[in-house]
Amino acid sequence: MEKHLKAGDTVFLDFKASWCSTCAAQERVINALKAENPEYEAKITFIDVDWDDHGKSDLVKRMNIPRRSTLVVLKGDQELGRIVAQTGKSQIKALMDSALGAASA
Question: What is the per-residue pLDDT for 5?
Fold first, then answer.
Protein backbone atom coordinates (compact mmCIF):
# COMPACT_ATOMS: atom_id res chain seq x y z
CA MET A 1 0.00 0.00 0.00
CA GLU A 2 2.74 2.47 0.97
CA LYS A 3 4.44 2.14 -2.42
CA HIS A 4 1.17 3.02 -4.18
CA LEU A 5 0.63 6.06 -1.97
CA LYS A 6 4.21 7.27 -2.42
CA ALA A 7 3.78 6.90 -6.18
CA GLY A 8 0.71 9.15 -5.99
CA ASP A 9 -1.69 6.39 -6.99
CA THR A 10 -5.34 6.55 -6.03
CA VAL A 11 -5.98 3.81 -3.49
CA PHE A 12 -9.31 2.39 -2.31
CA LEU A 13 -8.88 0.67 1.07
CA ASP A 14 -11.51 -1.81 2.20
CA PHE A 15 -11.18 -2.63 5.91
CA LYS A 16 -13.09 -5.91 6.15
CA ALA A 17 -13.47 -9.23 7.90
CA SER A 18 -14.54 -12.53 6.36
CA TRP A 19 -17.26 -13.00 9.00
CA CYS A 20 -18.72 -9.47 8.63
CA SER A 21 -22.11 -9.34 6.87
CA THR A 22 -21.85 -5.57 6.28
CA CYS A 23 -18.45 -6.11 4.65
CA ALA A 24 -19.93 -8.82 2.41
CA ALA A 25 -22.75 -6.47 1.35
CA GLN A 26 -20.21 -3.74 0.54
CA GLU A 27 -18.12 -6.21 -1.45
CA ARG A 28 -21.13 -7.22 -3.57
CA VAL A 29 -21.83 -3.55 -4.39
CA ILE A 30 -18.16 -2.80 -5.15
CA ASN A 31 -17.90 -5.82 -7.46
CA ALA A 32 -21.14 -4.88 -9.25
CA LEU A 33 -19.89 -1.32 -9.78
CA LYS A 34 -16.54 -2.60 -11.09
CA ALA A 35 -18.44 -4.81 -13.55
CA GLU A 36 -20.53 -1.84 -14.71
CA ASN A 37 -17.51 0.43 -15.19
CA PRO A 38 -14.13 -1.18 -16.00
CA GLU A 39 -12.44 2.21 -15.50
CA TYR A 40 -12.63 1.68 -11.74
CA GLU A 41 -10.42 -1.40 -11.92
CA ALA A 42 -8.13 0.16 -14.52
CA LYS A 43 -7.38 3.42 -12.68
CA ILE A 44 -7.85 2.71 -8.96
CA THR A 45 -5.72 0.42 -6.80
CA PHE A 46 -8.10 -1.62 -4.63
CA ILE A 47 -6.59 -3.03 -1.44
CA ASP A 48 -8.39 -5.26 1.05
CA VAL A 49 -7.23 -4.86 4.65
CA ASP A 50 -8.14 -7.85 6.81
CA TRP A 51 -9.56 -6.50 10.07
CA ASP A 52 -8.68 -9.67 11.98
CA ASP A 53 -5.01 -9.21 11.04
CA HIS A 54 -4.75 -5.40 11.05
CA GLY A 55 -7.57 -4.12 13.28
CA LYS A 56 -5.13 -3.05 16.00
CA SER A 57 -2.32 -2.00 13.67
CA ASP A 58 -0.51 1.32 13.46
CA LEU A 59 -2.19 1.90 10.09
CA VAL A 60 -5.66 1.65 11.65
CA LYS A 61 -4.67 3.92 14.53
CA ARG A 62 -2.94 6.45 12.27
CA MET A 63 -5.91 6.63 9.92
CA ASN A 64 -8.44 6.64 12.77
CA ILE A 65 -10.39 3.70 11.31
CA PRO A 66 -13.26 3.09 13.74
CA ARG A 67 -14.28 -0.42 12.69
CA ARG A 68 -14.37 -3.04 9.99
CA SER A 69 -16.63 -2.19 7.02
CA THR A 70 -14.80 1.11 6.56
CA LEU A 71 -13.96 2.17 3.00
CA VAL A 72 -11.34 4.89 2.47
CA VAL A 73 -10.03 6.58 -0.68
CA LEU A 74 -6.53 8.09 -0.63
CA LYS A 75 -4.37 9.82 -3.21
CA GLY A 76 -0.85 10.11 -1.90
CA ASP A 77 -1.19 11.13 1.73
CA GLN A 78 -4.51 12.91 1.22
CA GLU A 79 -7.78 11.26 2.23
CA LEU A 80 -10.45 11.96 -0.38
CA GLY A 81 -13.36 10.31 1.40
CA ARG A 82 -14.58 7.47 3.56
CA ILE A 83 -17.69 5.46 4.28
CA VAL A 84 -18.26 3.64 7.56
CA ALA A 85 -20.71 0.71 7.62
CA GLN A 86 -22.76 1.95 4.66
CA THR A 87 -23.93 -0.51 2.02
CA GLY A 88 -25.98 1.72 -0.30
CA LYS A 89 -24.99 1.58 -3.95
CA SER A 90 -25.28 5.36 -4.42
CA GLN A 91 -22.97 6.09 -1.47
CA ILE A 92 -20.34 3.57 -2.52
CA LYS A 93 -20.57 4.70 -6.15
CA ALA A 94 -20.03 8.33 -5.09
CA LEU A 95 -16.89 7.29 -3.20
CA MET A 96 -15.62 5.24 -6.15
CA ASP A 97 -16.41 8.12 -8.53
CA SER A 98 -14.37 10.51 -6.38
CA ALA A 99 -11.50 8.02 -6.56
CA LEU A 100 -11.89 7.75 -10.32
CA GLY A 101 -11.89 11.53 -10.67
CA ALA A 102 -8.69 11.80 -8.63
CA ALA A 103 -7.06 8.98 -10.59
CA SER A 104 -7.94 10.64 -13.89
CA ALA A 105 -6.70 14.11 -12.85
Answer: 60
Model pLDDT for residues 14-36, shown as the tens digit of each residue: 999 999 999 999 999 999 999 99
The average confidence (pLDDT) of the chain is 91
- pLDDT for the residue numbered 55: 86
The number of domains in the chain is: 1
Residues 69 and 66: their CA atoms lie apart, in Å, by 9
Cα-flanking dihedrals φ and ψ of residue 72, to 5°? Answer: -135, 135
Q: CA torsion sign, 95 to 97 to 99 to 101?
A: negative
Range of the domain at 16: 2-104
